[in-house]
């Protein structure tokens, strides 16, 4: 008879532990942030906007090439490629980080890589140097944001810095084409 009491006590203890574990799991699930469907719609809208900006750049490039404006056509071609190959994937990244952080997702995060062609090689060199200096500042900002727990701002500043470093050599190339008289 004494063994039955011990078995019941063990069963009651196991049931209490399971109940406490279940309650803790339910409480953590109740307080966890939930992803809303409209966040994903906003992310898709930003990606589509980025592709639209890229398409506009390609259309402008085609018109410039058709008008024998080779440097402008090159610059807008580069801009379109960056919008499609860098900007669109970045939108998925930014949107996901914003959704996970509980921040709002807006079209303000849509990049526009269009900076226009340089007027000559000296302008290209000056602009490329400015882009590299800007990238250094943005990388510093990204580190500051990251250390402060501002993950979306850190991701955005890092992406801006990377974009500046993507654009700088292209700007030099277009400036060299401009200098050659195309």
Brief synopsis:
This protein is mainly α and 182 residues long. The chain has five helices and no strands.
Structure description:
The protein has 182 residues and is an all-alpha fold. The chain has five helices and no strands. Helix 2 runs antiparallel to helix 3 and helix 3 packs antiparallel against helix 5.
Provide key terms for this protein.
single chain, 182 residues, mainly alpha, 2 domains, 5 helices, flat
Describe the secondary structure blueprint for this structure:
Blueprint: H1 2-31, H2 37-66, H3 70-101, H4 121-147, H5 151-179
Helix pairs in contact: 2-3, 3-5, 4-5
What is the structural class? mainly alpha
Q: Give the radius of gyration.
A: 27 Å
Which overall shape is indicated by the principal axes computed on the Cα atoms? flat
Number of domains: 2
The number of distinct helices, counting runs of at least 4 residues, comes to 5
Oligomer: single chain
Low-confidence stretches: none
Mean pLDDT over the full residue set: 80
**Main β sheet profile:** none
Q: What is the percent of helical residues?
A: over 70%
Strand percentage: under 5%
Order of helices and strands: HHHHH
């Amino acid at each position: 008879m004494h063994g039955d009491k011990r078995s019941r006590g063990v069963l009651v203890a196991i049931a209490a532990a399971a109940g406490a574990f279940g309650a803790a799991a339910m409480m953590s699930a109740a307080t966890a942030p939930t992803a809303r469907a409209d966040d994903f719609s906003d992310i898709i809208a930003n990606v589509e906007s980025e592709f639209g900006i890229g398409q506009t750049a390609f259309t402008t490039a085609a018109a410039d090439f058709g008008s024998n404006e080779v440097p402008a056509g090159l610059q807008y071609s580069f801009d379109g490629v960056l919008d499609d190959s860098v900007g669109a994937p970045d939108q998925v990244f930014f949107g996901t980080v914003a959704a996970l952080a509980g921040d709002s997702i807006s079209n303000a995060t849509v990049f526009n890589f269009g900076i226009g062609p340089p007027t000559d090689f000296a302008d290209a060199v000056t602009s490329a140097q400015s882009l590299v200096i800007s990238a250094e500042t943005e990388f510093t900002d990204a580190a500051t944001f990251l250390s402060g727990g501002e993950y979306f701002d850190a991701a955005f500043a890092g992406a801006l810095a990377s974009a500046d470093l993507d654009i700088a050599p292209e700007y030099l190339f277009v400036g060299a084409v401009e200098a050659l008289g195309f």
